[in-house]
Amino acid sequence: MKAIGSLLVLALVVLLGVLLGIAIILAWSLGIGWLLMQIVPLTWFESALLTMLASITMAYIGWRLLQLPPPLQTQFDENSLLFETPIPIKRFKESENDQRAEVWFRHEIANDLYWEFEETPGVSDTMGDTEMKELAVRITDMVVNLLKARNSKAQRVKITRTQFKQHMDKIGQRPYDDDILAAAARAVNQSLSFDERLANIVRDKRWDKTEINW
Length: 214
Fold this sequence. Notes:
By secondary structure, the chain is mainly α. The protein folds into 2 domains: 67 residues, no CATH class; 116 residues, no CATH class. 64% of the residues lie in helices and 0% in strands. It contains 8 helices and no strands. Helix 1 packs across helix 2, helix 3 crosses helix 5 and helix 7 packs across helix 8. The longest helix is centred in the first third of the chain and has 36 residues. The radius of gyration is 36 Å and the shape is elongated. The termini are far apart.
């Protein structure tokens, strides 16, 4: 009997809560409806009905928003916003405060070479990550030597596979495979074409100039 009595009490409380909610909505709708009727050409019933529908809609939207899971809590690390390149710029500095244009040039070209090697099946399939980085640095040395010796006054700055081979023959080194040289020439020429700052360093021979806009 006590259990039945408790259920009846609970049902009565729920019913009273529902009736109270309906009464509040009706009172709210009638009150706002009357105010709305003073502004727009609607009857009191139409204004109250419009207010009720709007209130129910807003209440439903609010309830749904409360059901959304909280956003994931992630630890914010300011340093994670810094773009880290595979080959750090300190690799090319002669001292901690070395700000020469050549340092930045080498850094950009070496990383572009590395990324190109990474995307070239004939290269990435036969080399590990460290090997590709070292290869990129060595080829960057060749690129800088070739471009420093450039006598052409042409506006377009570029490197060819033939130049790579001739340079390696000249220093008594066996030329790299064609896949490597083709990827290297492609990466360097794309960098020089898309970034005028790199090309201008070559054209104007600004290798030893101090660059402050890295």
